[in-house]
Design a protein that fits this description.
- By secondary structure, this protein is α/β, with parallel strands linked by helices.
- It has a single domain, classed as Alpha/Beta hydrolase fold, catalytic domain (Rossmann fold, 3-Layer(aba) Sandwich), CATH 3.40.50.
- It is built from eleven helices and ten strands.
- The strands form two sheets. The protein has an eight-stranded mixed sheet with strand order 3-4-6-5-7-8-9-10, with helices on both faces.
Length: 287
């Protein structure tokens, strides 16, 4: 039996009907020889070890692999998304940046950029690829909020297969627009308890120091040939996503998919719709 739902629910459109991906409703066949597994990892980054969770798809593989990047500070890990992506036949790596949620080292935005590169190097390492049935030539970066910026930054690597940005935070653009430093610092202070080695003053100073170069619109020349998915929400970041899509198209990008979900920054009441949008896009990369 096939299951359908209005696209108005799934993707915010009122003109069509979308089929729910099987990975949202059906477990894949179990493999006795190469079962699906999940395990904790320690991923090296610049002398520290980052805590990670590795979801390995069932089957001999090698499997295409998603690196799923969380935001700031990282309370929403999108693990429902990780599980549905794995059911679709992909491996998924989720990790905490240095200094975040018990990972060694100090948290900073610059460190997080390096940490994303370290995770990319980890999945491409031949020993890890063999052990976890990873296809190192088929790596996709998916990031939420701050993770969307990290995905775009690391996605400039020409060997990355695709980049998805979910309610992405354009760090530099927001730093330039900040008119009330005390308010920004107060917000940072209110969320940084899971982070170590940083202060609200220090993080604010960091984004101000990089307000010109930490703008994901500057990454367009390297990203415009990549398959991209941009999903916006009803938050204060929607204009950044819309502007990025317009800039990409003006630069000649033809492999960009964008959609809007009428919900909050965490997609709290559109989790199924979010999974449908991501799974449908991934299926275009690896049918």
């Amino acid at each position: 039996m096939k299951f359908f739902l209005p696209l108005a629910f799934a993707l915010g459109s009122f003109t069509a009907v979308a089929q729910i991906p099987a990975a949202l409703t059906t477990d894949p066949p179990a493999s006795k020889t190469d079962p699906a597994t999940m395990g904790d990892l320690a991923i090296p980054s610049h002398g520290a070890m980052m805590n990670g969770i590795n979801y390995v798809a069932g089957g001999a593989g090698p499997h295409p692999t998603v690196i799923l990047l969380h935001g700031f500070p990282g309370g929403e890990l999108n693990l429902d998304l990780a599980q549905s992506i794995r059911r679709a036949g992909w491996n998924v790596l989720v990790f905490h940046y240095r200094g975040a949620w018990g990972s060694q080292g100090a948290f900073s935005f610059a460190n997080s950029i390096e940490d994303t590169q370290a995770a990319l190097a980890w999945v491409r390492d031949p020993q890890n690829a063999k052990k976890y049935r990873i296809n190192p030539d088929r790596i996709v970066l998916i990031g939420h909020s701050m993770g969307g910026f990290m995905a775009a930054s690391a996605g400039r690597d020409p060997k990355v297969m695709g980049v998805a940005m979910l309610a992405a935070w354009n760090i530099g653009a927001h730093a330039r627009a900040a008119s009330d430093p005390a308010k920004v610092k107060s917000h940072i202070q209110s969320v940084i308890s899971p982070l170590s080695g940083c202060t609200a003053d220090g993080l604010y100073a960091e984004i101000q120091a990089h307000k010109e170069d930490w703008d994901f619109n500057l990454f367009v020349p390297q990203l415009k040939t990549h398959p991209l998915l941009v999903i916006s929400a009803d938050d204060n970041l929607r204009a950044d996503s819309d502007g990025f899509v317009a800039t990409m198209k003006s630069a000649g990008a033809t492999r960009i998919t964008s959609t809007h979900l009428p919900t909050d920054h965490l997609f709290d009441d559109h989790r199924i719709a979010l999974q449908i949008a991501v799974l449908d896009w991934l299926n275009t990369l690896n049918p």
